[in-house]
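Pinned message: reference record for ABC transporter ATP-binding protein
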Amino acid sequence: MSNLVEIRDLRVDFPTPTGFTQAVRGISFSLGREKLGIVGESGSGKSVTGRALMRLLPEAARVRAGALRFDGIDVLNASERQMRDLRGGRIGLIMQDPKFSLNPVMTVGRQISEAWLAHQKGGKREAREAALALLEQVRIRDPQRVLESYPHEVSGGMGQRVMIAMMLAPNPDLLIADEPTSALDASVQAEILKLIEDLVSARGMGLMLISHDLPLVSRFCDRVVVMYAGQVMEELPARDLHRARHAYTRGLLECMPSLSHKRARLPTLSRDASWLEPRA
Ligand SMILES: Nc1ncnc2c1ncn2[C@@H]1O[C@H](COP(=O)(O)OP(=O)(O)O)[C@@H](O)[C@H]1O
Ligand SMILES: [Mg+2]
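Predicted structure (tokens):
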């Protein structure tokens, strides 16, 4: 399987008044047309990793890597034009809250049409037909009405479906979903993740699903990369999660509340200072 994404020894530092903080400290992994979960607690460097791949980090960030490639393209040295082709074209990004990504003064239909027109060949009528078809693909029941709606007129779950439709419009090779359901009710979460999973499989795309929720991610991904403090602690097939060796991974699993096994109290995740040491 040829790799869509190749990341080797990625390091990202941010300047602070007292020096640089190391947000990502030498991580490596690759991704083909498969579903990969990036999991870790808040602040572990998951979003920074996804953004580094799209070269979306602030100017001040210092990004270094042995390799940071998308489909063979060297992201660190690519031209701005090449990057525009990747962002929102070959790589779609879905974030936590669609309210911040959708334009509040433009109808849903126009936003999806414009995303389509920016990367596909055809006129306005084709774009509108494509937008309608995309809304159907993301299982919106009344696509004609939603096409005419403004973002504030749709619910959170619906907004996320619209975001997915917009990201799929250019027919991307990779979808990066960064906590795509963290702002949604639990009942809607599973539906949206199932939708993403189905669309990614049907289109043969790659998926990078970023989340703090290890059990949730393992249900929808083939493979899981576990991050802690800017490093990869462990990488394993989702089905082997119960065999996770690293204490941090086991801790993430055990700290999740479960409806099936009632517990008097949840364990707290204990951390070991040795996890912070640079890993081989
Ligand atoms: N623009 C920024 N400036 C300074 N520090 C940042 C910036 N973005 C992220 N960081 C820091 O990098 C670390 C990793 O952040 P992030 O990747 O967002 O974590 P998460 O795993 O929760 O997605 C955090 O310590 C965060 O404070
Ligand atoms: Mg994040």
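Pinned by admin. Summary line: Residues 32-39+82-257+265-276 form a domain with the Rossmann fold fold (CATH 3.40.50.300).
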